[in-house]
Every structure is written in structure tokens, then in C-alpha cells.
Amino acid sequence: MRCMIRSVLLALVAIVLAASPCAAQATGHVQVKFVKAALVVGGGGGSGTLSYRGRHYRFSVSGFSLGISAGASVTWLEGTAAGIREVNDFAGSYTLVGGGGAWAAGVGGVSMRNEHGVLLTLKGPKAGLEFAANLGGLTISLR
């Protein structure tokens, strides 16, 4: 009887631990300024800050886009970086699908994931003259 109760308790503990989010993963807050110019193929770069577990990490970002895209813009994005196990997971190559527009001012948003499984979800205001609906990639490097 004791063996059965012990087995049931161990099974319950295992289920609770499996259902709980991994304590090793945390969500960070991201702010980035990105300057872009495009005519079908685009390129750009910028810098930002990752706030993660009480610390602030500066980073640089460079990227490209391919698709329906024309114009030039400056975008200030803010959002979250989910699934970070350690701060170095944030750096890497991200694949993105995004869109937005600006005629003097507008909005932009992207969702992207890197090879470490970190998911960035960003949105924010955009200034310039641009329309975009494209695929692309970004490379983030911690400074």
C-alpha cells in the first residue's frame, strides 16, 4: 500500500513539474531603432537594448528584406524576447515575416525566431515613406 501511495505521489510531482514552465527560460524586454532603405530588396541596421533578468545588454542589428518593399524609414520597435535560457541565446540570425507602412508616420511590426528558439515579437512607430510586405532576415550581435 505504501509503495502504491509513493508511486502516485511521485507521478503527481512529475506531472506538475512537466506542466510548469521551465524556470531556466525567461522573457526579456527589447527596444530597438532600425533604419531601412528598400526597392524590392532592402537593407538596414540599427541598435537596441535587451533588458533581461534585471540587467541591460546593448546589441547591434543588421538585416535584409526581399518582397514588396519600397522607400526608406526609421522604426522604433519595442516588445518581448521569449524563450531565452541564457543571454547569449538572444544573439543570432532571425527569420522574419512582417509588414507595415509609413507616409510621414505609421506603424510596423515583426515576429521572428532565431536558431536558439528565441521568439521576438516587436511593434512600434515608423517614420519615413515606405510600404512593405516581405520576408527577410536579421542578425543580432551583443556588444
Q: How would you characterize the overall build of this protein?
A:
The chain is mostly beta strands and 143 residues long. The protein has one domain (25-142): Lipocalin, CATH 2.40.128. Helices cover 13% and strands 72% of the residues. It has one helix spanning 2-19; strands at 26-52, 55-84, 92-103, 105-114, 119-142. Strands 1, 2, 3, 4 and 5 form a five-stranded antiparallel β-sheet that branches. A hairpin with a 1-residue loop joins strand 3 and strand 4. It is elongated and about 70 Å long. Mean pLDDT is 77; it is low at 8-14 and 16-23.
Summarize the structure.
The chain contains 1 helix and 5 strands, in the order αβββββ.
Q: Which key terms come to mind for this protein?
A:
143 residues, mainly beta, Lipocalin, five-stranded antiparallel sheet, 1 helix, signal, DUF1134 domain-containing protein
SSE topology sketch:
Blueprint lengths: L1 H18 L6 E27 L2 E30 L7 E12 L1 E10 L4 E24 L1
Antiparallel strand pairs: 1-2, 2-5, 3-4, 3-5, 4-5
Kindly report the CATH topology. Lipocalin
Question: Which structural class is indicated by helix and strand composition?
Answer: mainly beta
Q: Which band does the percent of strand residues land in?
A: over 45%
State the order of secondary-structure elements, H for helix, E for strand.
HEEEEE
| Count of distinct strands | 5
What is the overall number of helices? 1
| Biggest β-sheet strands, sense, barrel | 5 strands, antiparallel
Provide the CATH architecture.
Beta Barrel
Mean pLDDT: 77
Protein name: DUF1134 domain-containing protein
Signal peptide: 1-26
Keywords: Signal
Organism: Bradyrhizobium ivorense
